[in-house]
Amino acid sequence: xIDIFGASNVSNKQVDLYPYSYDMTENEPHMPDFVVxxxxxxxxxxxxxxxxxxxxxxxxxxxxxxVGGLTIPDYGGIIVDFGKKxxxxxxxxxxxxxxxxxxxxxxxxxxxxxxxNYPHLRYSYPNAPPYASVIGNALLSGMTNLATKIGxxxxxxxxxxxxTADGEIVRxxxxxxxxxxxxxxxWWGRGPIPDLVGLFINWQGMxxxxxxxxxxxxxNPPIKKPYLGIFFGLxxxxxxLREIGxxxxxxxxxxxxIEVAKMxxxxxxxxxxxxxxxxxxxxxxxxxxxxxxxxxxxxxxxxVAELNKKGTNIHLIDYNEFSKLFNLRARTIYELPAVILxxxxxxxxxxxxxxxxxxxxxELIEKCDLLFKKHNVPSYIMMKTLKNSHLGIFxxxxxxxxxxxxxRMMKLVEEITDTCLKMGCIPYxxxxxxxxxxxxxxxxxxxxxxxxxxxCMDPNNxxxxxxxxx
Amino acid sequence: MLRTLKKGLYYKRSFFYKKxxxxxxxxxxxxxxxxxxxxxxxxxxxxFPDDLISLSLYNIFSYRKxxxxxxxxxxxxxxxxxxxxxxxxxxxxxxxxxxxxxxxGEHEGFDMKVKIHINTMLDLAFGRxxxxxxxxxxxxxxxxxxxxxxxxxxxxxxxxxxxMTVASDPQLxxxxxxxxxR
Amino acid sequence: MTEIKIDDNLCGKKYxxxxxxxxxxxxxxxxxxxxxxxxxxxxxxxxxxxxxASGKIRTVRGLILGELEWNNDLxxxxxxxxxxxxxxxxxxxxxxxxxxxxxxxxxxxxVQKIGPGPNQEKLLELTTNKEIYNPYGELxxxxxxxxxxxELPDKAEWVYFIGCTSNYRQQKIRDATIRFLKRAGINxxxxxxxxxxxxxxxxGQIGCSKEFMEYNIxxxxxxxASKVITSCAGCYRTFKKDFEKFGAKxxxxxxxxxxxxxxxLDSEKMKIKSEYNKTVTYHDPCHLGRHMRIYDIPRExxxxxxxxxxxxxxxxxxxxxxxxxxxGVKIGYPEWAVEISIERIKQAKETNATVLSSVCPFCITNxxxxxxxxxxxxxxxxxxxxxxxxxxxxxx
Lengths: 470, 182, 396
Description:
The structure holds three protein chains of three kinds. By secondary structure, chain A is an alpha+beta fold. Chain A has 14 helices and 20 strands. In chain A, the strands form four sheets. In chain A, strands 12, 13, 14, 15, 16, 17, 18, 19 and 20 form a nine-stranded antiparallel sheet that branches. Chain A has a five-stranded antiparallel sheet with strand order 5-6-10-8-9. In chain A, strands 1-2-4-3 form a four-stranded mixed sheet, with no helix packed on it. Chain B has two domains: about 1-30, no CATH class; about 45-170, Nonspecific Lipid-transfer Protein, Chain A (2-Layer Sandwich), CATH 3.30.1050.10. By secondary structure, chain C is α/β, with parallel strands linked by helices. In chain C, helix 18 (about 360-375) links the parallel strand 10 (about 355-360) and strand 11 (about 380). The chains are: A alpha+beta, B alpha+beta, C alpha/beta. At the A-C interface, helix 2, helix 4 and helix 12 of A face helix 3 and helix 4 of C.
């Protein structure tokens, strides 16, 4: 390891390994055997060849902020910490709007770079700390503050540079031309070629190590106006989410139960009173001109009026103005990237974050609400629609004291998982215990193909073994 | 040396002046304060609530809890004001001495009740409407004025003034507006 | 749930308990919030998670639960940190204000189990030596000679607590401060000082701290003083925060020299008559800035010096980059201490200032070392040294 990375970039001291053994979730910690900090892809290639020869597991790590235990080395091995040195923004292409990044680039870093140098472009930021990885989030189909418009971040990857199990460098996407390194201007798209990018999205590092990725950027319109939707009926949010995406007027809608809103302003164990609304939603609208904004607002108001005629009780308020009077602390959920204060107040966080069928939203809300009540936990639910309401996001989220309260929270998470899986929800960033439950329901054809691909890509199972119960 | 008595109000017991003399330090000048054995009220105590509308009111009032004019208006007003912000629910704001607390619902024996839509409230806070026109147009409905006409003046000083003060702060970032905020 | 067993005799026990259920490892401690700039000298140098605040907090848990063994491998992760508090400022979680306390408590525990950090045992040896009483190994001075030299009384309203660094390494600062106080007509004296024990507290060697604190309190009482003034940010922080932590009670007021100077300027008791026509940039000492939240007072003084042009480094106030000397790093990792300081020199040079000024003698020492190592063309001066060069009129 020292020959490959240099003495200062390698450690097997217990004290250095220990912080890599755990994360914020309920997943059981495991110690790695080494942690290495690569500076370039050549070092990564040497590492992969070495590990393949000696059958040593490799676990990629950037900031360990995934809510899924994905960087915990279940079988020991070597943690490859990309976050510390392979963290450069390599290129921004203004014309075709993409950013070419190393894996350690964080949201905060990218936002700062764009704000200072390319203010007419924006990226899409998740409800995650600014120090989480852009590429990690994209590879795990994270969804962000443009999700209602553009969908999952996995769809926004133009191309990848990957080190496969045999130590070969593979460039995937439009950058695939050229026997040597690709021109930075060539990373503009993913097709129309057999989509090998899919072999690395949501595979949780099981098929190769990413050393570069090109991710799409979007125009940054000058006018932005967020609305706050207030939903008094428990399931009033559901038809709204289904309709709003189809209207193609919003950048994003993030809906959260009122307990989340109260938690956001510092109430540790909030209660929802009967007269209070059940949900609220921040609806982000942007426009190039005032007329465009007015038109979008008119459509938004019409959608709400139509839904209210059908029996919902939905109201719209100017979010900027209301948040000023209510509590500016609540804006951390809107002004991304930001530290969502309520989520860092405890030592543990977990969720059932899932892609969900939108026609099941009502049932999901009602059943999960009851489960939260059963376990005496405030009903923390976040929801969205993706890509013009093609699909939804349903995310009950749990913060807890890891040292004192994990067992109780686990019971709730498991029950919610069982309930939601039965209704067809597909969790993302899945820990192994969740994928074990999913496997019981997935068709054999898929499971067999999955196993075949894994074996083909990683015959010795060195890449993050244990994920998806491999 | 400058000593912080309470946030927003400083006093100093300076080695340059007589001992045991209290000064208020403001705008880089010192003003001697005549205490006259009076207890100095430097802050209004506001109970931290846990429902949505009360939380908003808490936020609005907290902004001015050290403000001299606000303290003067609130101190010993001793009133119960029901504020019904539609489409939300009514909240009773209880002023007692230097304390403010909140109760969900309409308290019996309220002194005044005000009904207003949230969008009207925002219009008033952000200067797009004035309270008198809003009342004239029926956008603010007040009950209980007959017994004490000074109620409206106090209501304006406490509620409206506070809302407008919060709204007028251009800062939208939580960390900028609160020093040392987390 | 495993029971937590922490030695009751540990002074920092309550901070160690905090380490169990308060950190989610969101990485916010690693960078200045909103600017997304590097902030943590130890994390930036050593890179592994164990060197950042969240890693140290997790290390506490591992050690107490027995998941980590006590051995010398732990020393660098525990002691290679200047305790600058950048993590405290960046962290947005409820335990943020206690991160440095947690690190100091971890060091206290480590000293008992595996001994102090590299070379740091010398701090204790020298400070507790009855002929020395300071971490520099210089023969102890009761300051009687200084009192005679400056014709100071035995008893006075104020005590100027010089501090070990000013008394034994940066005497220019000591002398400039004494001259200033005399010119200002302040009724002050000096005492027979023992080290305030800041270097010992930062390195976990706290055995003699309370004894030394009580000694200093007694000396101040003997002088009939009701006010203590110091020109050292470290001593200031120790008096204001650590004395209480160690149960060393006192009823005098404690001031930093900048607080007095600002007071004099604001009340127009002091008028600076001559000019200082140089471009100056101010380095926020961690112990005055982040630890005690004093950022603007020194700046307002600089701005009132005629002719002085104050320019800011990119990383300033709560985002200031540490000088690298604190937390036992200067003695434990001397090369690295200078490396950290060189980074600060580079930041100062970017402002085109010709003078880098601060109000802490330890910062001045390390910045001067780095300045010499780098290319030596900045003047590194304490504020008092600047004022010492100026004609000042005092109204008595």
